[in-house]
Amino acid sequence: MQIGILSDTHNQTSTLQTALTYFKQRKIHTLIHCGDMTTVETAQYLCEFQIYYVFGNGDFLSGEIRATLKGFDSKNFGSLSFSGEMSGKQIGAIHGHLPAELDLMIRNQKYDYLFTGHTHRRKDEKVGKTRVINPGALGGTRYQSRSVAVLDLTTDELHFQEIEP
Predict the structure, then answer these.
(1) Residue 12 burial (CB count, 10 A)
(2) Per residue in 102-138, pLDDT tens?
(3) In sequence order, what are the beta bridge partners of 24?
């Protein structure tokens, strides 16, 4: 199973649309969004996907964003952090703006994969048994080129994809 990972869209709908087209071309139906979508309007672009969404420090309308996502599919998820299983792998996600919570999720070694955002920088790092992945950012402050990631949960293969609107 392949999943798409994205973060920090900061209401940049042109890069988001390009990223979503990329995911559709790869026949990816499940996305983990690591926070800072920032607006309900941005959430509406995600209606064709199964979404696991964790709130970021820029998501002032988190309740409305969650309601919008759940309105598309009751199985969609929206909360401050995520913990669950996909394809036999333990998955965690948190935006990263609460460093103590992020550190706790890494230290407890419960997860095969832990997805995070906030820094706007791509990351793929193994900490004990946990692979910590940040897909980079689609909007906001630019430290690197815009990007998303695709992870194959069966083969453990990760690919970062640069995104230009």
Answers:
(1) 20
(2) 999 999 999 999 999 999 999 999 999 999 999 999 9
(3) none
d(CA 74, CA 71): 6
* Rounded Cα–Cα distance for residues 85 and 67 (Å): 23
Q: Rounded to an integer, what distance in angstroms lies between the CA atom of residue 152 and that of residue 3? A: 7
Q: In this structure, which amino acid lies at residue 111?
A: Y
3-state secondary structure of 121: coil
The domain spanning residue 127 has which CATH number? 3.60.21.10
What is the pLDDT, as a whole number, of residue 165?
74
- Can you tell me the distance from the alpha carbon of 31 to that of 108, in angstroms, rounded to the nearest whole number? 24
Whole-number CA gyration radius for the chain? 14
3-state helix, strand, coil in the chain (%, to 5): 25, 35, 40
Structural domain range at position 6: 2-162
Q: What is the pTM of this model?
A: 0.96
Give me the phi and psi of 89, to 5 degrees please: -110, 140
Region for residue 30 given its phi and psi (left: phi exceeds 0; alpha: psi -120 to 50; beta: otherwise): beta
Q: How many domains is the chain partitioned into structurally?
A: 1
Question: What single letter denotes the amino acid at residue 106?
Answer: I
